[in-house]
């Protein structure tokens, strides 16, 4: 069950983050607030179902950081440093793309300046990020089956001749 929810939450993260990276109309402060609220609801649901140890919440980390990025101030060099230290699960390309797509929805917000984006790129130039922008939402985590040893000893098992397993020998 834990593995299923980890996979499901990864797919939620990948699809939502990819939509954020591809749609200018959703890159705003208010969307960041809505995302963070929805993610906290998912995290609360995981706690309520006692699935905290499943790793499902950790798969949402890039989306959480993207939501926080949308909510942070984006003006000074200190803001750039804060963004760089906060957004460790996002690649440089993803951070820059979100900042380029950021669209103010009211008169109190301003567009992100090109100088600020260059400042971010300078801070993140040492990172060795993968070149891909979008997350692979078809990624599948390996399924692990726990080993449960049997209480039946192998020498007590009788194999019927009708199975034609003569090549098996008792040792």
TrEMBL record:
SMART domains: DIL (SM01132)
Coiled-coil regions listed: none
Pfam families: DIL (PF01843)
Dilute domain span: 1-126
Signal peptide: none
Superkingdom of the source species: Eukaryota
Gene Ontology molecular function, alphabetical: GTPase binding
PANTHER family, per database record: DILUTE DOMAIN-CONTAINING PROTEIN, DILUTE DOMAIN-CONTAINING PROTEIN YPR089W
Name used for this protein in its record: MYO5B protein
Source organism (scientific name): Nyctiprogne leucopyga
Gene designation per UniProt: Myo5b_4
């Amino acid at each position: 069950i834990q593995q299923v929810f980890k996979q499901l939450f990864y797919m939620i993260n990948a699809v939502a983050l990819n939509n954020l990276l591809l749609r200018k109309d959703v890159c705003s402060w208010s969307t960041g607030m809505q995302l963070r609220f929805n993610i906290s609801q998912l995290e609360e649901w995981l706690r309520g179902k006692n699935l905290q140890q499943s790793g499902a919440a950790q798969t949402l980390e890039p989306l959480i950081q993207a939501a926080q990025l949308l909510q942070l101030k984006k003006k000074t060099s200190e803001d750039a440093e804060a963004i760089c230290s906060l957004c460790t699960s996002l690649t440089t390309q993803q951070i820059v793309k979100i900042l380029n797509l950021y669209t103010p929805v009211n008169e109190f917000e301003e567009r992100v300046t090109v100088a600020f984006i260059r400042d971010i790129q300078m801070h993140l130039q040492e990172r060795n990020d993968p070149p891909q922008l979008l997350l692979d939402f078809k990624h599948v985590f390996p399924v692990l089956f726990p080993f449960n040893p049997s209480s039946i000893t192998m020498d007590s098992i009788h194999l019927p001749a009708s199975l034609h397993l003569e090549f098996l020998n008792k040792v």
